[in-house]
Model the fold of this input.
Amino acid sequence: MNRDTLLHKITALDFMAVDLQLFLNTNPHNREALEIYNDTVAKATAARRQYEAQFGPLTGARDPSGPGWPWMDEPWPWQNERSAS
Done:
């Protein structure tokens, strides 16, 4: 899966999780919604792990590489080939 597709997937799953949280705030005993929420969070976590394994951390706080700033070596969004066209 490419970088943009994976980011879109993470964003969609995170949005769905927040939406389900809001629903569960007013329907805390809805087992089906809770199961869907738990499944969605698990999928978002897996997608985030896949992204970070392939492309590096999504945030500086999630960088497991220790000291330094390795993401600085990556191209910035405006340096992408797509931006150059």
Summary: The longest helix spans residues 31-55.
